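Model: You mentioned two targets. I'll fold them one after the other.
Researcher: Yes, keep them separate.
Model: Target one:
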Amino acid sequence: MGAYILRRLLLIIPTLLGIMIVNFVLTQFVPGGPIEQIIAQLEGEGDVFEGISGGGSETLGAGSDDNYVGSRGLPPEFIAQLEAEFGFDKPPLERFLSMIWNYMRFDFGESYFRSISVIDLVLEKMPVSITLGLWSTVIAYLVSIPLGIRKAVRDGSTFDTWTSALIIVAYAIPGFLFAILLLVLFAGGSYFQVFPLRGLTSDNWESMSLLGKIGDYFWHIALPVTASTISAFATLTLLTKNSFLDEIKKQYVVTARAKGLKESRVLYGHVFRNAMLIVIAGFPSVFIGVFFGGSLIIETIFSLDGLGRLGFEAAVARDYPVIFGTLFFFGLIGLVVGILSDLMYVFVDPRIDFESREA
């Protein structure tokens, strides 16, 4: 197993390098870089995309002010100073190699427009995204596994039919639409003012007691976590049900029942471990999926300042250090989680040997 893990760790390097190369090359052809953002503001256009729509584009790393939309009213010396400040006076290859060297030392630089390091910015926004990802995943597992087992045991019954219909309806509802519905109903939109509209804590959170802080925290996350969890129930529940159905039909279950073992002993003493292999081992990847997927819309609707909004705002502002730094960071997390998922399979069922399979 050690050799397999070592190979997977070594594969992280070329994979991350490929991700960064593709995205760096793409930015060379995307109009509206950070310099054009500043020029648009100085020219009073408000947003760089208004100038782009009139024609022209930016050539990153070029040294002439003619490459920038709306720069004719600004002196070339000022444009050259901006390029030097942002590092665009150097060739793209030199900038890319310098960026990769810095990232190898986990030096992600500083945001162009926030005057804060990328690492500090990510750490500042991380609690919101971890809150949504962790609690959504935990709640989805706590509900989906018992429900899936119950559906497998009562396969084809009225309970199974009705719960399947409810799960499919919940899965079909977009998360952002369900979030808006929750706001309208329970956050003072038109009906009830039960939950707060924004943030993770109240303004007087620091002055609260420990129990008050815990209660206030869960009071604030109730709606966003519910909105981000609703679609996760379907996949996990049906996966659990199908896994149990596959195991129940196997010969060792028939033999256990023939020996006179209680049904609960058969289900939870024999079937559970084998059926839950794919469900439990997939926990890290499910968490990352919830952590990354859909966070932007949920965070925007509930006014939560997390990584989803950070990535979106950085992309709009062309804040390249934040874009590439978070991309590298999240790509690394995703690859490491893939390895952890494999280790979870071995932990749940030691009979699995990835090295022998590769051989």
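Model: Target two:
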Amino acid sequence: MKRDIQHVPYGYEPPAAERKGTLVFYDSFEHITDLELEQAARTATERKFTKLVLYPLHEETVRRMSKEPVSAFYKREDRLHEWKREQGRPFITVESLEGKRKKYTPLDSALRHISEVYPSPYFLYLTPNTANQFASYASFEEWIVKLRLILSEAPANVHPRLEKFRHRWDIAGEEKSV
């Protein structure tokens, strides 16, 4: 096995990584427009995230979370892949875990998968409605200390647990650093 020896001056420290962390857009993407996707990509760029992960939900997951009808998973996923190609940004990824599972995936399982695959720290980009649903889950308090939330817009009404952890989330248009 060949060894590559590198010589560096005494006291040299490699420059700190300018980009860090993962922004995960967790949604069904049924009603998300291209402008909203662009806002998420702009937020990831402004806050210097390493990755923007678009995480589309399977029909069964959406059915259990909100009871609203959605189009087939592959149609929504294809739309996201097409949008990603149009953008030409290499840091955008479309996560396909739910497409592989082909069934209901609890949010806990999705977050565990994300924490195993992508670099930390973790930020969830959510619509206000999805954020309120997340706050209603029993495991919310366990996860909110491990990640932060970025809401796409200011919520009209806030779940009590979401209000309790107000210091762990902010709105996409506000200026904050990672």
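Researcher: Noted. Anything on target two?
Model: The chain has one domain: 22-171.
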